[in-house]
Design brief:
Length: 163
Amino acid sequence: MMSERLISLPLSSHNFQPSTHSNNLTMASGSCACHYISYTASTPPTCLVNCHCTTCRKQAGAPYQTWAFFATDDIRWLVNPTERQSTNVSKRTFCPKCGSTLSMLQHSDLKSIAIAAGTLNEGKTLIPPPSHHIFLSEKASWFKLPEGDGAKRWDNWGVYEKL
Ligand SMILES: [Zn+2]
Ligand SMILES: [Zn+2]
């Protein structure tokens, strides 16, 4: 259980120290599959977006990757994930032990970070359902979009509020 607010960024397993300030409740948390990498945030994600682009699909090994958007400054990594330059517009991070995808950061928008929504812990946080499907031009042909999910649909980049 993460009951302590963590300070200083970036953090590693060797230097993290619980803050003496306990008035800021942790509102969201998550981890990779093996729990080596974990993170906290002070607020719930602003929105969830299903990205059907080829890179997300292959990286996820699934029809799409659901991203949960947070303010980059609000994510506290207890151990920093490994970075990979995935395309010319973004870098992604993953767990070096289990390979779980953790995040994506777009060079054009460093203020918001996309966290792999499947890594969010259930329980404490109110997590909104995905509100957008993006990059449907690259959608896997064998995947049928759910009817009536209320999510907006975009061929490429969508327009949505990340923060
Ligand atoms: Zn892991
Ligand atoms: Zn994508």
